[in-house]
Design brief:
single chain; about 230 residues; mainly alpha
């Protein structure tokens, strides 16, 4: 019996699929979900509007919409489409569902103080978020050369995670770290997979997740100054 030299293996030896199969997942889920992608687009617009509004009810609504996006993404893309060809993706699917549960609890239970950022900052947050959530999905389509391969927020994991991070700034610093652990783990898993597959253009997504996660660990929006 010969000893197995694990150091001789690379990550590509553990992936049982190539870039064409991976990119085809985005096309498949869009074809299967059509025309329900309109719900994901409506969620994007609604979150942008809630970020502009910025009051207590808007914060709760934003986190509830994020919870729905993580749930849909985990139970749908990760467990039903990605999991059958990549077992760790199915494990992440359960983790995404747990994250959705935590976001729901935070939205409904946390005693929000009702303070909000200055109006200019709220508009910047809403518009900036909408631009980011609209542009990031195009990376998968550009990588595959097929517009049906667009990776929408709420349907695919990398875009959902990246777009969620700015919204997590609504949470107080002392509890925010709990919600940033999974994005960081997903970033490492996704980066390793995309790098191994050679999908260099899509590597922007985990890079963005990493940067936004690091920023979210310490950054907090400033509340509006009361007059007088």
């Amino acid at each position: 019996m010969t000893d197995v030299n694990w150091l001789s293996y690379s990550l590509s030896d553990f992936l049982m699929f190539g870039p064409e199969v991976f990119l085809r997942l985005f096309v498949r889920i869009n074809q299967d979900f059509w025309p329900w992608q309109g719900i994901a687009v409506a969620m994007m617009l609604l979150i942008a509007g809630l970020l502009v509004r910025g009051d207590r009810l808007a914060k709760r609504g934003t986190l509830l919409l994020l919870a729905a996006a993580w749930m849909w993404c985990g139970a749908g893309f990760l467990m039903e489409y990605y999991g059958p060809i990549n077992i760790p993706a199915a494990w992440f699917g359960w983790a995404f569902i747990l994250q959705a549960a935590l976001l729901t609890v935070a939205a409904l239970v946390w005693p929000w103080d009702g303070r909000s950022a200055a109006p200019a900052r709220r508009w910047q947050a809403g518009i900036g978020w909408l631009v980011m959530a609209s542009l990031l999905p195009l990376l998968a389509a550009a990588q595959s050369g097929n517009w049906q391969g667009v990776a929408l927020f709420g349907i695919t994991p990398d875009v959902t995670v990246a777009a969620s991070l700015p919204c997590l700034l609504l949470l107080p610093r002392r509890v925010r770290w709990l919600f940033l652990l999974l994005p960081l783990l997903w970033c490492l898993f996704s980066a390793a997979t995309l790098w191994t597959l050679g999908t260099r253009l899509m590597f922007v997504l985990p890079a963005a997740i990493l940067v936004l996660t690091m920023v979210s660990f310490w950054f907090s929006p400033r509340p509006a100054q009361s007059p007088g």
